[in-house]
# Entry
Amino acid sequence: MSKSCIIVITLICVIKVQTIYALRNSSLILTNFFNNYANSTIHDITQTDIAMNVLFDFKGSEIEMVNLYNEAVDENNNISSNNDYELYEQTINNFALRLTRYGKDSISELQKTELAFIAHLCPFVGGSAVYKARVLWGVYSPITQYNDRLTCTQGQNKNGDNGYVNLDSLYEEQTNEEANKLTQLQGINNNSYKVDFIKIATDKFEDILVYPNPARDAIFISDLPEDGEFELSDLLGNTILKQTIKAGVAAQKVLLPVLPNGIYSYKIKLSKNFYSGKLNILQYEK
# Structure
Protein backbone atom coordinates (compact mmCIF):
# COMPACT_ATOMS: atom_id res chain seq x y z
CA MET A 1 0.00 0.00 0.00
CA SER A 2 1.38 3.42 -0.92
CA LYS A 3 2.11 6.07 1.70
CA SER A 4 -0.56 8.31 0.15
CA CYS A 5 -3.19 5.61 0.80
CA ILE A 6 -1.98 5.15 4.36
CA ILE A 7 -2.25 8.90 4.98
CA VAL A 8 -5.81 9.02 3.62
CA ILE A 9 -6.92 6.01 5.66
CA THR A 10 -5.29 7.45 8.78
CA LEU A 11 -7.05 10.80 8.32
CA ILE A 12 -10.44 9.09 7.84
CA CYS A 13 -9.92 7.06 11.02
CA VAL A 14 -8.82 10.11 13.00
CA ILE A 15 -11.84 12.15 11.92
CA LYS A 16 -14.16 9.37 13.06
CA VAL A 17 -12.30 8.94 16.34
CA GLN A 18 -12.28 12.69 17.03
CA THR A 19 -15.98 12.91 16.30
CA ILE A 20 -16.93 10.36 18.95
CA TYR A 21 -14.96 11.23 22.07
CA ALA A 22 -16.42 8.34 24.08
CA LEU A 23 -15.36 5.86 21.41
CA ARG A 24 -11.86 7.30 21.39
CA ASN A 25 -11.47 6.47 25.07
CA SER A 26 -13.36 3.20 24.99
CA SER A 27 -10.27 1.07 24.51
CA LEU A 28 -6.54 1.28 25.01
CA ILE A 29 -5.95 0.59 21.31
CA LEU A 30 -8.04 3.57 20.19
CA THR A 31 -6.54 5.82 22.86
CA ASN A 32 -3.01 4.91 21.79
CA PHE A 33 -3.93 5.40 18.13
CA PHE A 34 -5.16 8.93 18.79
CA ASN A 35 -2.22 9.82 21.03
CA ASN A 36 0.25 8.64 18.38
CA TYR A 37 -1.59 10.63 15.73
CA ALA A 38 -1.56 13.76 17.89
CA ASN A 39 2.26 13.63 17.86
CA SER A 40 2.60 12.89 14.14
CA THR A 41 3.42 15.00 11.10
CA ILE A 42 0.02 14.15 9.60
CA HIS A 43 -1.60 15.82 12.63
CA ASP A 44 0.54 18.94 12.22
CA ILE A 45 -0.30 19.17 8.52
CA THR A 46 -4.02 18.72 9.23
CA GLN A 47 -4.00 21.38 11.96
CA THR A 48 -2.25 23.78 9.59
CA ASP A 49 -4.84 23.12 6.88
CA ILE A 50 -7.62 23.83 9.37
CA ALA A 51 -5.99 27.08 10.52
CA MET A 52 -5.43 28.20 6.92
CA ASN A 53 -9.03 27.41 5.93
CA VAL A 54 -10.28 29.49 8.86
CA LEU A 55 -8.04 32.36 7.72
CA PHE A 56 -9.09 32.14 4.05
CA ASP A 57 -12.81 32.08 4.99
CA PHE A 58 -12.54 34.91 7.53
CA LYS A 59 -14.41 38.16 7.04
CA GLY A 60 -13.79 40.76 9.74
CA SER A 61 -11.36 43.28 11.13
CA GLU A 62 -7.73 43.45 10.08
CA ILE A 63 -6.54 42.87 13.64
CA GLU A 64 -8.49 39.61 13.87
CA MET A 65 -7.21 38.58 10.44
CA VAL A 66 -3.60 39.20 11.51
CA ASN A 67 -4.16 37.04 14.59
CA LEU A 68 -5.53 34.21 12.45
CA TYR A 69 -2.60 34.64 10.04
CA ASN A 70 -0.10 34.34 12.90
CA GLU A 71 -1.88 31.24 14.23
CA ALA A 72 -1.68 29.61 10.80
CA VAL A 73 2.02 30.48 10.54
CA ASP A 74 2.69 28.99 13.97
CA GLU A 75 0.86 25.78 13.05
CA ASN A 76 2.84 25.51 9.82
CA ASN A 77 6.12 26.02 11.65
CA ASN A 78 5.27 22.97 13.77
CA ILE A 79 5.54 20.68 10.75
CA SER A 80 8.70 18.58 10.99
CA SER A 81 9.53 15.60 8.82
CA ASN A 82 12.28 13.68 7.05
CA ASN A 83 10.03 13.09 4.04
CA ASP A 84 10.21 15.53 1.15
CA TYR A 85 6.53 15.18 0.28
CA GLU A 86 5.56 16.34 3.80
CA LEU A 87 8.08 19.19 3.80
CA TYR A 88 6.61 20.30 0.45
CA GLU A 89 3.34 20.86 2.34
CA GLN A 90 5.11 23.26 4.69
CA THR A 91 6.82 25.08 1.81
CA ILE A 92 3.60 25.54 -0.17
CA ASN A 93 1.72 26.65 2.94
CA ASN A 94 4.36 29.34 3.48
CA PHE A 95 3.85 30.60 -0.07
CA ALA A 96 0.05 30.56 0.30
CA LEU A 97 0.18 32.49 3.55
CA ARG A 98 2.59 35.03 2.13
CA LEU A 99 0.44 35.56 -0.95
CA THR A 100 -2.64 36.02 1.23
CA ARG A 101 -1.00 38.60 3.47
CA TYR A 102 1.35 40.46 1.13
CA GLY A 103 0.24 39.73 -2.44
CA LYS A 104 1.80 38.07 -5.51
CA ASP A 105 4.79 40.44 -5.71
CA SER A 106 6.02 39.24 -2.30
CA ILE A 107 7.27 35.96 -3.80
CA SER A 108 10.91 36.17 -4.94
CA GLU A 109 12.21 34.69 -8.21
CA LEU A 110 13.97 31.95 -6.26
CA GLN A 111 10.73 31.11 -4.47
CA LYS A 112 8.89 31.06 -7.82
CA THR A 113 11.43 28.55 -9.09
CA GLU A 114 10.80 26.32 -6.07
CA LEU A 115 7.03 26.70 -6.49
CA ALA A 116 7.23 25.73 -10.17
CA PHE A 117 9.43 22.74 -9.32
CA ILE A 118 6.89 21.32 -6.86
CA ALA A 119 3.98 22.05 -9.22
CA HIS A 120 5.62 19.96 -11.96
CA LEU A 121 6.38 16.95 -9.77
CA CYS A 122 4.55 13.68 -10.16
CA PRO A 123 1.85 13.80 -7.43
CA PHE A 124 2.77 10.27 -6.42
CA VAL A 125 6.22 11.61 -5.53
CA GLY A 126 5.36 15.07 -4.21
CA GLY A 127 2.08 14.22 -2.50
CA SER A 128 -0.93 16.51 -2.20
CA ALA A 129 1.37 19.56 -2.02
CA VAL A 130 1.78 19.21 -5.80
CA TYR A 131 -1.88 20.10 -6.36
CA LYS A 132 -1.66 23.04 -3.96
CA ALA A 133 1.46 24.24 -5.78
CA ARG A 134 -0.34 24.08 -9.13
CA VAL A 135 -3.10 26.33 -7.84
CA LEU A 136 -0.55 28.89 -6.62
CA TRP A 137 1.60 28.60 -9.76
CA GLY A 138 -1.51 29.50 -11.73
CA VAL A 139 -1.19 33.01 -10.30
CA TYR A 140 2.06 33.44 -12.26
CA SER A 141 1.51 31.07 -15.17
CA PRO A 142 -2.23 30.56 -15.71
CA ILE A 143 -1.84 28.66 -18.99
CA THR A 144 0.51 25.97 -17.65
CA GLN A 145 -0.68 22.44 -18.38
CA TYR A 146 0.40 19.24 -16.64
CA ASN A 147 0.72 15.75 -18.10
CA ASP A 148 0.93 13.48 -15.07
CA ARG A 149 0.65 10.40 -17.24
CA LEU A 150 3.99 11.31 -18.79
CA THR A 151 5.59 12.86 -15.70
CA CYS A 152 4.83 9.87 -13.48
CA THR A 153 5.92 7.34 -16.09
CA GLN A 154 9.52 8.54 -15.97
CA GLY A 155 9.69 9.37 -12.26
CA GLN A 156 10.53 7.59 -9.07
CA ASN A 157 7.88 6.72 -6.50
CA LYS A 158 7.76 6.91 -2.73
CA ASN A 159 8.01 3.15 -2.37
CA GLY A 160 10.63 2.72 -5.09
CA ASP A 161 14.39 2.71 -5.30
CA ASN A 162 14.95 5.94 -7.24
CA GLY A 163 15.13 4.00 -10.49
CA TYR A 164 13.28 4.99 -13.64
CA VAL A 165 10.33 2.66 -13.65
CA ASN A 166 7.78 2.56 -16.45
CA LEU A 167 4.47 2.80 -14.60
CA ASP A 168 2.35 2.74 -17.74
CA SER A 169 2.58 -0.45 -19.77
CA LEU A 170 0.74 1.21 -22.66
CA TYR A 171 3.95 3.08 -23.50
CA GLU A 172 6.09 -0.03 -23.63
CA GLU A 173 5.50 -1.16 -27.22
CA GLN A 174 5.97 2.35 -28.61
CA THR A 175 9.06 2.88 -26.46
CA ASN A 176 10.69 -0.35 -27.63
CA GLU A 177 10.10 0.57 -31.25
CA GLU A 178 11.66 4.00 -30.90
CA ALA A 179 14.58 2.69 -28.85
CA ASN A 180 15.42 0.20 -31.59
CA LYS A 181 15.15 2.92 -34.24
CA LEU A 182 17.47 5.15 -32.20
CA THR A 183 20.01 2.35 -31.80
CA GLN A 184 20.02 1.56 -35.52
CA LEU A 185 20.23 5.15 -36.72
CA GLN A 186 22.66 6.57 -34.22
CA GLY A 187 24.60 3.54 -33.00
CA ILE A 188 23.93 4.35 -29.37
CA ASN A 189 24.85 1.73 -26.81
CA ASN A 190 22.01 0.67 -24.50
CA ASN A 191 24.11 1.49 -21.44
CA SER A 192 24.93 5.07 -22.43
CA TYR A 193 21.93 6.44 -20.58
CA LYS A 194 22.15 3.94 -17.70
CA VAL A 195 18.44 3.29 -18.34
CA ASP A 196 17.04 0.29 -20.20
CA PHE A 197 15.64 1.39 -23.52
CA ILE A 198 12.37 -0.36 -22.79
CA LYS A 199 11.91 2.14 -19.96
CA ILE A 200 12.57 5.32 -21.96
CA ALA A 201 9.41 7.26 -22.76
CA THR A 202 8.69 8.87 -26.11
CA ASP A 203 6.51 11.89 -26.80
CA LYS A 204 4.37 11.38 -29.88
CA PHE A 205 2.42 14.20 -31.54
CA GLU A 206 0.47 12.60 -34.36
CA ASP A 207 3.49 11.41 -36.38
CA ILE A 208 6.22 13.58 -34.78
CA LEU A 209 8.44 11.71 -32.34
CA VAL A 210 10.66 13.20 -29.60
CA TYR A 211 12.94 10.81 -27.72
CA PRO A 212 14.46 9.70 -25.39
CA ASN A 213 12.70 11.08 -22.33
CA PRO A 214 14.46 11.23 -19.83
CA ALA A 215 17.35 12.67 -21.85
CA ARG A 216 20.98 13.38 -21.05
CA ASP A 217 23.10 15.04 -23.72
CA ALA A 218 20.77 15.03 -26.71
CA ILE A 219 17.30 14.27 -28.00
CA PHE A 220 16.12 13.13 -31.42
CA ILE A 221 13.15 14.35 -33.43
CA SER A 222 11.80 12.31 -36.31
CA ASP A 223 8.96 12.30 -38.85
CA LEU A 224 8.61 16.07 -39.15
CA PRO A 225 6.06 17.00 -41.83
CA GLU A 226 7.95 20.25 -42.61
CA ASP A 227 10.88 22.37 -41.46
CA GLY A 228 10.37 23.98 -38.07
CA GLU A 229 12.00 25.21 -34.88
CA PHE A 230 12.67 23.44 -31.59
CA GLU A 231 12.60 25.64 -28.49
CA LEU A 232 13.55 24.55 -24.95
CA SER A 233 12.56 26.59 -21.87
CA ASP A 234 12.78 26.29 -18.10
CA LEU A 235 9.67 26.21 -15.93
CA LEU A 236 9.68 29.99 -15.58
CA GLY A 237 9.43 30.39 -19.34
CA ASN A 238 13.04 31.47 -19.94
CA THR A 239 14.26 30.28 -23.35
CA ILE A 240 17.34 28.06 -23.07
CA LEU A 241 17.76 26.73 -26.59
CA LYS A 242 16.43 27.37 -30.09
CA GLN A 243 17.33 25.22 -33.08
CA THR A 244 16.06 24.90 -36.62
CA ILE A 245 14.89 21.37 -37.37
CA LYS A 246 14.59 19.95 -40.88
CA ALA A 247 12.00 17.69 -42.43
CA GLY A 248 13.24 14.63 -44.31
CA VAL A 249 15.80 13.71 -41.64
CA ALA A 250 15.20 10.26 -40.19
CA ALA A 251 16.20 11.31 -36.67
CA GLN A 252 17.30 14.92 -36.21
CA LYS A 253 19.71 15.30 -33.31
CA VAL A 254 19.36 18.25 -30.91
CA LEU A 255 22.33 18.67 -28.56
CA LEU A 256 21.39 19.81 -25.06
CA PRO A 257 23.47 22.36 -23.13
CA VAL A 258 24.74 21.66 -19.62
CA LEU A 259 21.67 22.02 -17.40
CA PRO A 260 20.56 21.18 -13.86
CA ASN A 261 18.54 17.99 -13.58
CA GLY A 262 14.82 18.67 -13.79
CA ILE A 263 11.70 19.09 -15.90
CA TYR A 264 11.85 21.48 -18.89
CA SER A 265 9.26 22.60 -21.43
CA TYR A 266 9.70 22.42 -25.16
CA LYS A 267 7.86 23.51 -28.28
CA ILE A 268 8.08 22.35 -31.86
CA LYS A 269 6.97 25.28 -34.01
CA LEU A 270 5.71 24.66 -37.54
CA SER A 271 4.26 27.10 -40.06
CA LYS A 272 0.64 26.68 -38.98
CA ASN A 273 0.86 24.77 -35.73
CA PHE A 274 3.04 23.98 -32.76
CA TYR A 275 3.44 21.08 -30.37
CA SER A 276 4.53 21.31 -26.74
CA GLY A 277 5.61 18.90 -24.05
CA LYS A 278 7.82 18.28 -21.02
CA LEU A 279 11.37 16.94 -21.15
CA ASN A 280 13.05 15.36 -18.14
CA ILE A 281 16.79 16.15 -18.33
CA LEU A 282 19.11 14.02 -16.20
CA GLN A 283 22.76 14.88 -16.73
CA TYR A 284 24.16 14.24 -13.27
CA GLU A 285 23.95 11.41 -10.78
CA LYS A 286 22.09 12.39 -7.61
